[in-house]
Structures are given as C-alpha cells and as structure tokens.
Structure of DNA-binding protein:
Amino acid sequence: MVRTRVHNQFVSLDGYSAGEYVTFDQPIGDASRLFGWFDGRVIEGVHRVQEPVTLDRALFSMWGQGIGAEIMGRRKFGPQQGPWPDDGWRGWWGEQPPFKTPCFVLTHHPREQMVFENGTSFHFVDDTPEEVLRRAKEAADGLDVRIGGGPTTVRQFLRADLIDFMHLVIVPITLGRGVSLWHDVTGFEDRFALESVSSSSGLTHQLWNRRSTGS
Amino acid sequence: MVRTRVHNQFVSLDGYSAGEYVTFDQPIGDASRLFGWFDGRVIEGVHRVQEPVTLDRALFSMWGQGIGAEIMGRRKFGPQQGPWPDDGWRGWWGEQPPFKTPCFVLTHHPREQMVFENGTSFHFVDDTPEEVLRRAKEAADGLDVRIGGGPTTVRQFLRADLIDFMHLVIVPITLGRGVSLWHDVTGFEDRFALESVSSSSGLTHQLWNRRSTGS
C-alpha cells in the first residue's frame, strides 16, 4: 500500500505552523521559534547528530523512510510571489537539497523543472491536489509520497482527505499570529486514529493514522 | 562520533530476553511470546508494513539507521554448540539476511567467513569484546556498530562499558525462566541517561544514552 505521509509538522499551542511573512532572510517567516527544537540533519537518521538518541529524534528520523516523492507548497521552495523572476533561484538548499527524490511544487506559475545531481528534482505544477498526488505517486514508483508542507499545503490535502498519516509535533509555545494549520479544518479527527506521546523535552508527538485508507 | 548501539532488545517483566533452549524449531528458545508484538519487516522502515505508523513501529525502525556493522552472539546465528558441524548452515535467514553489513559472530570456534550477495557477511571471531568492537568499527567505515544480541552478548558489552545507546523494549509478560539480560549487571544505570515512554500497546520503550561517550 502506498501512503501519503506528513512528517515533522511543527504546530504552536495556538495552532500556527509558519509565520506570516516569508522573506529571503526568514524562510519560515517570523515563526523560527517553532523549529528551535530541531536539528534538521536527523531527518537522515539518528546517527547524523552527535546528541543522544531521544524520543524526539527517533520520531523525527522517520521523515525519509520509504519516501519516493514529495509535494510542497511554493513558499517552501522560495519567497517569491507571482510570476517567477529570472533570479537563478534554485530553492533554499543550494545544490544539495535534502529531498533526493522528485518534488512537486504547487504554483499557479508553472516553469521548467530543475534537476540536481543528488536525485532531487523540482517539478512546478498547477493542478488539483488529486492530480498532483497522482503524478507524485507515479514518480514515487511504489514508495510513499510525503506532503512536505507548509501548513497551507497540508491543510489543502487534509481537507481533500488525501492524507494517510501525519506526524504533528505540538510545540509548547504560542506565536499569536502566523499561518494556521487548522484554519477552516473541522471534523478531520473522526477519520483518524490518534496515538499521542509527550517527550521529556516538552514536545507532544501526535501520530495520526487514517482509519480507512484508500490507495 | 561512531556509536555502539543496541536496538529492539525485548525484555520481559522478570528480566528475560531469550529462552533457555535454542533449537532449529525455536530460534529464540521458548521465549517467542516476547516477540509477538513485532513485525520484523519494520526494521527496514515504517513503510514496510501495511499497519498504522504507531509509536512502537516508529521506534523499532531505528534499527538500521547509519549502521555499518553488527556484532552478534553465536546463538543468534544458529543453534549449534561446540565445533561447527559440516551441515551447510548459513544462518536463520536463508540467502537474504536482513543485516546487509559485515556481521561479527562471537564463537570459540572460528571458521571461514560467509558472504552474501545483499551485502551481508558473517565473520567468526574468538576475541575480547574490545578487540571485536575494534574490528567491527573498522568494517563499519565511519558508521555505527550495532550489538545485535542475544542477551548474553549485550550483557557482555554492557559490563565492559562498550555500549553508547540501548533501545530496550519492556514487554508486559513474565517468562519465569530464560536468559536474563540483567544477570550479574549492577550499577550500569549510573552511566546512562534514561528516557522512558509507554505506548498504547502496553510496551515500554527505554532509550538509554551513555552520559560520557568514548569513541
């Protein structure tokens, strides 16, 4: 069974998953405090960080397991808005994006794909969630598809009932403003089974598994 | 930093990690109830099982992350005792052992190594834990070394203070007899920081990180 999975989606106590303003200096807007708990290298495995193997790190490390493609929102790829400027931008990550799979970037302004030597490629698509997911599954070649965020993208797929698994991380801070993960989302919890656990750091990990998974 | 790690070491409430009698029919002796909670495929990642991504499965899936070699006791490799019979035995796993790295098998009866097409090899060594670990680290080529069990082997390395991380899984059953993980082990807990969490299945996961890690 091929799954559509969300990993390491950080959410503040007041429901925000990103800041309001994304700029070149602030890739996640004014919400960087959400990610203070996170050494990004652990997405490649607990061995990639020197620090102890904690519950937090163990759960973060699921990110890449069996993932064959990612779908992301345009803001995860870059801060530009509207038609793409001719600025040579190839994403936040330089020539070594961590994805190492095809990535489908949702945008109303399609453009040429970008291919990197480490297996990452970016494909810019303007289509329905269902159609983008169909293409991503095809590209994933039997592996799972990650919905990589940001919150607007996760919410869009959640409302379309296209998500099979979500690992949310409830961060014990408030942001007061930002992009909510929950705006206009109601009743989704009835479709999922939840296992929830808090770690010694104060984070709460929620593992949401869709009860009856389509494919 | 290269770590020496133990993963998915199941322990009963009364401290047993294997049965007393290992035979061809009973690879883990009469203690198979310890493993009823475990679908072994998950060691390759949570995507390998159809079932929901639970806390248990998430933690089990760390097993192979960044591991470059394993050290195992002789009984994990086979039920034979004394000099090796000429029986063509190549381990419990057929021609697809799950390890996919060099594995060092502790035995007082060294023999020729065995090499498999999937990257697994078995090297039979009669040496001190320190020396076997030195060889395993060399073979791991910068990755971590897993102490793969059984309990006698884990205990031996624990007593020699050669373990940096242990994921123990406390299973809510008693066995009454078997091979204890804790026989003659005292005071080890002072050398480790412990994070402990129980899952909805009733298992308790203990993540033991050595406080001051050598290399």
